[in-house]
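Key result, reporting period 2: structure in, sequence out.
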């Protein structure tokens, strides 16, 4: 079973994108190695759906954060090791000997660099083995530590007699062709899987150090995952991870209060709050730290957002029809009986006020009946909130606007109730639009 999230939700929350400035992935992409970056990408694209597995991963991140380490390997040496292991892997004795002898002869006659490169790759590999041994020897690990089993696995590998002997070899003395062939066969054939395991370990360490360092620097915490049957989401001082000095908000939702009805003026922070919630839930499902003071959540089976719905010229959709299609997709997802988080920002803003009111009220009431799901619905049409007052499972919260000398100031702090703010015309007047038109 997979965690369900579609491309629109990924884009609206700006979760992925190696080169996408401001993306959540870009925030955590502090890894040093190519293999670490590949692993980071895999983690980001494969949210976990079992609370035990999630909590195990967060425990590892926390373990590394407590150590406060910097990446203990030479990036250049790890890269050379990767190239060395990929060159001529799996060959037998005769083929390895013939290939090595040919490379040496060519290096003497036509200045072919492959023989030298092979020796440098071997030297780098042995240096990486030594660095790995030093790293494992210097960190204190008890048997119940989160990463203990993995560390013991690599420790056992390093103390394999032939690898231990190799690790203590003087790698800078002159090597005969026979010796080089022996090492090539040892590392590229007999212990090829072990070397791949070693590199995987290094890439894991790379990711764990990078992500935990981001958490330490930015004051992020690790969420606690609960079984899906709890149907609960509780977060304190939630904020957007990419916004410096963001205002935090606290929120608790469960089966008895599974819908948040959110109101507030434009620029009051509704969309940012919704994105913060969606991003944190997604990060929590990959075991990554979240921008909050604390967070407990029951595992969801998917995340669905409708925040920046646009018209679709290619399909001939108007803005309103695109909104209708999006709501239909959400209804189909919710009706399948899965535990989801669904968020809708300004339902049906592409049509007239009367239809928007009727549509928002009807859809919100219908969605509220799916008690296994959690919903967030925001709107400017505050009259909808008044019509929903009789539903005991709907939380009413708003983001206020404070007027100071005729100018709005936004607190970005959630308050209980439904807003009565109507500053639209005041902002229009403040910007002098009417005077410009009449001039």
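The corresponding designed sequence is given below.
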């Amino acid at each position: 079973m997979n965690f369900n999230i579609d491309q629109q939700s990924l884009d609206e929350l700006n979760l992925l994108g190696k080169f996408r400035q401001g993306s959540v992935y870009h925030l955590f992409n502090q890894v040093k190695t190519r293999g670490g970056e590949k692993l980071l990408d895999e983690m980001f694209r494969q949210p976990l759906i079992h609370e035990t597995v999630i909590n195990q991963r967060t425990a590892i991140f926390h373990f590394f954060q407590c150590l406060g380490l910097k990446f203990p390997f030479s990036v250049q040496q790890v890269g050379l090791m990767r190239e060395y292991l990929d060159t001529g892997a799996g060959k037998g004795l005769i083929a390895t000997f013939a290939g090595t002898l040919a490379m040496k002869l060519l290096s003497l006659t036509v200045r072919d660099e492959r023989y030298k490169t092979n020796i440098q790759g071997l030297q780098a590999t042995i240096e990486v083995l030594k660095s790995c041994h030093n790293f494992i020897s210097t960190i204190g690990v008890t048997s119940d530590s989160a990463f203990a089993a993995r560390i013991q696995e690599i420790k056992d590998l390093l103390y394999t007699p032939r690898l231990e002997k190799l690790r203590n070899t003087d790698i800078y003395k002159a090597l005969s062709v026979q010796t080089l062939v022996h090492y090539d066969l040892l590392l590229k054939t007999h212990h090829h899987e072990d070397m791949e395991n070693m590199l995987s370990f290094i890439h894991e360490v790379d990711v764990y150090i990078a992500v935990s360092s981001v958490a330490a620097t930015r004051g992020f915490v690790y969420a606690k995952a609960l079984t899906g049957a709890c149907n609960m989401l509780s977060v304190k001082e939630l904020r957007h991870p990419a916004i410096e000095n963001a205002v935090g908000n606290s929120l608790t939702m469960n089966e008895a209060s599974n819908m948040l009805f959110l109101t507030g003026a434009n620029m009051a922070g509704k969309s940012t709050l919704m994105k913060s919630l969606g991003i944190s839930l997604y990060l929590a499902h990959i075991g990554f730290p979240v921008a909050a003071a604390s967070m407990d959540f029951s595992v969801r089976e998917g995340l669905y957002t409708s925040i920046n719905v646009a018209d679709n010229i290619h399909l001939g959709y108007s803005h309103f029809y695109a909104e209708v299609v999006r709501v239909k997709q959400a209804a189909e997802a919710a009706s399948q009986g899965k535990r989801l988080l669904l968020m809708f920002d300004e339902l049906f803003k592409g049509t007239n006020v009367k239809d928007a009111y009727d549509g928002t009220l009807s859809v919100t009431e219908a969605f509220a009946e799916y008690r296994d799901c959690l919903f967030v619905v925001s709107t400017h049409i505050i009259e909808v909130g008044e019509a929903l007052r009789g539903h005991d499972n709907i939380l009413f919260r708003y983001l206020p606007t404070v007027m100071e000398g005729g100018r709005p100031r936004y607190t970005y702090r959630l308050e209980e109730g439904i807003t009565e703010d109507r500053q639209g015309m005041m902002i229009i007047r403040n910007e002098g639009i009417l005077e410009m038109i009449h001039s």
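The two ends are 63 Å apart (CA to CA). The chain is about 50% helix and 15% strand. This case is discussed further under Risks and Mitigation.
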